[in-house]
Structure formats: structure tokens, C-alpha cells
């Protein structure tokens, strides 16, 4: 059931003029809901789409602001069609928890220097609270056929590749896929112990990650005709959920804000290279520096620990 039309606005949570997104808090019935609305880019790779601009009907209303010699400035409305020319992409989180509200609210960012000791004393105990039911939706994709129609590629005991919710699935220049790990640290399938983040990786994972990378390159080339030289392939630390996943983004997609910045994104090639030097203990012995919002519960725990 599509509940977007049931959304009742309460307050603004965040906005980004660069990515042309606005995030709103509201309600659907008695439950909180979060609506993110993003203006979509023009589909410059679609010739049929571009030819629509030859019709005067594409601009139902035009208002001239100014003109000077050969220069003319105007405002206009753009004719839209949800199948051919959608104007916006909408992401809905419903019901939205307080954790969701904190995550999507505008907040100050801090830099964290996480030593192996800080990870063991503070970060790992926090991660344990984010497992189980908190990532059931991931298990639903991996093991219970949820979103099966969206799966681009599946390789048993390796990964599942599918579109990220941030992609409109139309404009290749904004391509955004995510590869979710099927590999466990211990055990098999849903009952096994998953790889939660790069902290769990060591030299024994190098060959798997290399194969995963090459599989991604091949699948994206075959399905979307996008060469590997156009792809950013990276992981996040801290990730948004604690089941290892790899982000696959077209290099022309510049609307992702801080998620592609230093302090958040780590290129998969660099992860593989690091593991060759880090040996048996892998990332568990490395100090990692990353950005974290002040609303994040992990920041609260780290701040309390360092001030104790």
C-alpha cells in the first residue's frame, strides 16, 4: 500500500540545496513518518527525453525576469509525467522511530579518532544493540525473497546486488547500487554471524573482496553499459547499518552530500590494499578516524566515555 498521500506534515528536519532534497517529519495515522523529497536530474543520456524540449508544451508557464542583449532570464514550470518525466523522487520511512528522526535531523558533525581500544570498549557494545531485529530487513532481502524483483545479481556465499533507494532507476548518471554481503564470520546463512563492518575484515577476506569487486564491474557493464572507470565503489565507516555492504555509485552522481566524503567513505580498492598490510588481525588493530553527527547514539556513548 502506498502511504505517501496519507502523510501529514509536522516539521522540517533537514534540507540540502546542493542535492535538492528536503526531509520532513510528519505523521501517518498515529505514527511518525519521515518523507524525503528529491528533485530529479535531467535524463541527458535519453534522446527521446531530450527531444521533448522541442515542444512548446514542455513549459506550460514562462515568466521573463530580465533580458540584456542576447541574454534572457526566465522562470518556468515544467510539464511532468510520472512515467516519462517525473519531477521528484520520494522516500518514505513509516513508521519512523526516534532513531530515524535523530538520524535525518540537521545536526553538527564531529570527528572521532577511534582506536582499537575505543572500538572494543564503546563502539562494539553499541553495534551489538544494532543487530538482530534492527537489521531484520536486511535478512528479509538476503534470505526471504523481499525485494526479489529488484535484485540485479546474486552470488551465493558472496553478495546480493540491488538498487539503492536513493536512485531513481532511470538516470544512469546517478546510478547507485548496493552490494550486501552474504559472507559470514561464522556459520552459514541467516543463523550465522555476519560481517558487521570493515572492523571484522582481515587478510583472509582479500580474495573474496577482489572477486566481489570484479563481479560488480562486470554486472554493471553488462546491465547498464557503465565502464568501471565511471564507478566509485566504497564502504562506509561508520555504516548506516551493521551488515557489511558496498556502495556502487556513478562518478557523475554528485548529489550524495557527505556520504562520499573523507571521514565516511573508504574506497574498496583501498580496503583491499590495507588488508594486505594489516595481516591476520586486519582492521581490528587499526585506528580509524571518521565523522559522526552529534545526534548519533554512538557519539553520545563516545563523549561520555572520553569525559569519564
Automatic annotation (TrEMBL):
Substrate binds at residues 137, 147, 164, 166, 236-247. GO terms for molecular function: hydrolase activity; RNA 7-methylguanosine cap binding. The active site is at 245 (nucleophile). GO terms for biological process: deadenylation-dependent decapping of nuclear-transcribed mRNA. SUPFAM superfamilies: HIT-like (SSF54197), mRNA decapping enzyme DcpS N-terminal domain (SSF102860). InterPro entries: DcpS/DCS2, HIT-like_sf, Scavenger_mRNA_decap_enz_N. GO terms for cellular component: nucleus; P-body. Belongs to the HIT family. PANTHER family: HISTIDINE TRIAD HIT PROTEIN MEMBER (PTHR12978), M7GPPPX DIPHOSPHATASE (PTHR12978:SF0). This is YALI0F31141p.
Amino acid at each position: 500500500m502506498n502511504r505517501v498521500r496519507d502523510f501529514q506534515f509536522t516539521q522540517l528536519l533537514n534540507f540540502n540545496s546542493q542535492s535538492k532534497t528536503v526531509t520532513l517529519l510528519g505523521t501517518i495515522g498515529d505514527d511518525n513518518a519521515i518523507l524525503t523529497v528529491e528533485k530529479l536530474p535531467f535524463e541527458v543520456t535519453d534522446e527521446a527525453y531530450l527531444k521533448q524540449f522541442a515542444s512548446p508544451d514542455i513549459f506550460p508557464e514562462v515568466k521573463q525576469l530580465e533580458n540584456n542583449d542576447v541574454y534572457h532570464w526566465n522562470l518556468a514550470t515544467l510539464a511532468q509525467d510520472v512515467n516519462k518525466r517525473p519531477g521528484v523522487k520520494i522516500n518514505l520511512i513509516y513508521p519512523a522511530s526516534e532513531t530515524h528522526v535523530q538520524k535525518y535531523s540537521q545536526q553538527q558533525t564531529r570527528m572521532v579518532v577511534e582506536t582499537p581500544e575505543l572500538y572494543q570498549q564503546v563502539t562494539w557494545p553499541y553495534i551489538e544493540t544494532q543487530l538482530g531485529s534492527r537489521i531484520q530487513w536486511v535478512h528479509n532481502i538476503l534470505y526471504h525473497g523481499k525485494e526479489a524483483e529488484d535484485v540485479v545479481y546474486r552470488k551465493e556465499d558472496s553478495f546480493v546486488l540491488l538498487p539503492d533507494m536513493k536512485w531513481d532507476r532511470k538516470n544512469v548518471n546517478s546510478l547507485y547500487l548496493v552490494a550486501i554481503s552474504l559472507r559470514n564470520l561464522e556459520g552459514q546463512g541467516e543463523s550465522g554471524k555476519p560481517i558487521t563492518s570493515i572492523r571484522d575484515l582481515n587478510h583472509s577476506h582479500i580474495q573474496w573482496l577482489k572477486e566481489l569487486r570484479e563481479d560488480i564491474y562486470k554486472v554493471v557493464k553488462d546491465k547498464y553499459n557503465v565502464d568501471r572507470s565511471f564507478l566509485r565503489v566504497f564502504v562506509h565507516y561508520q555504516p548506516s547499518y551493521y551488515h557489511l555492504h558496498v556502495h556502487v555509485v556513478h562518478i557523475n552522481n554528485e548529489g550524495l552530500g557527505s556520504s562520499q566524503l573523507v571521514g565516511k567513505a573508504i574506497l574498496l580498492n583501498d580496503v583491499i590494499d590495507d588488508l594486505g598490510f594489516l595481516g591476520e588481525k586486519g582492521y581490528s588493530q587499526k585506528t580509524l578516524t571518521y565523522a559522526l553527527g552529534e545526534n548519533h547514539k554512538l557519539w553520545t556513548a563516545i563523549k561520555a566515555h572520553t569525559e569519564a
